[in-house]
């Protein structure tokens, strides 16, 4: 990274630490598979924090729990549409689905009933379950986004039930060890920052407690170093190692529900927040616990991401600072496009499908992508478009856009010649309304006319 870029990044966090009066602040920038910059300001135990200094990351913990749930889904151990009762029977909230819990659309209360859970010693799941026996739903399930820390306490129990071990033991075995996140723990291990509240009208500090949340721990228990959080940033961006398929993480990044108006700036996927800042659509998660703030954001398009952690209860602009670090990096050192290379292998049968197709009178272009994938895009660039992954002979599954999850089939006649494409019942032909026998409702026998009548 250029010295001018490094200086711009350092100045940004220096301004934030000074103006927000954060006792300390650490940050990092990731590009693709690489950690390219780290910076720190302030003091922890009288010294500048290092890349090994732990901070509590609060609700970023939820993204780890969501990854564990998606691993179970990918293994076929559960379906996201399953009601909770199928896997954690006997609760008062058994009708809510796993997907709703992941996306905060279950309608569950935001906080666990009783005392302020973030500042009190937690209890086991039996106690949490009992507290939810009455009046736990604040909204009709599926009706709206309503952030629920409780929902992730429940998901932690779901993971434990299906794996036969605590969610923390599963996390260690399935995510932390494979990704070599050696400084991500449920409790601080020195060197670790102390959590502070900063007085609003004087430059003095108040120590904040960091109790064990127990059943609520999946909502915000973890501590992390900036190096570990930077590796998790890469994970969210698609560098998933062997932990999850990148397609699954891409699915997690897709908004399931927005939490503001039609011109949305903030949404939530399956365990990941999606926000629009500085003209970018960023994915990741923020976190706050008494004494700590953290943010993990990545631009999936460019692969540039940023993380930031501070030991202050409030006041630090963690989201805007992380977004600014991404912007500064892109401004000073724009991402180079991936170097073009010809395909290693191209199936002649797929190559023969490329070119122009028509949905009625509308021209589309089918292109061959790596690994036998194809894309179908309107010639104008406007309208429904998707990529498709091969699922067998002449069959593909949509990956994004309007046709996500839908089936594209290549239809052939008795001689094996391609007649048309069937995409979720829509017919695509080489000529506008070609192959009349394949068009539902038929094609006017008079054909194309120069005028009405």
Automatic annotation (TrEMBL):
Domain DUF7586, which positions?
347-430
Query: By its UniProt entry, which Pfam families does this protein fall under?
Result: Beta-lactamase, DUF7586
Q: Where is the Beta-lactamase-related domain?
A: 16-329
Q: Which domain of life is it from?
A: Bacteria
Name of this protein: CubicO group peptidase (Beta-lactamase class C family)
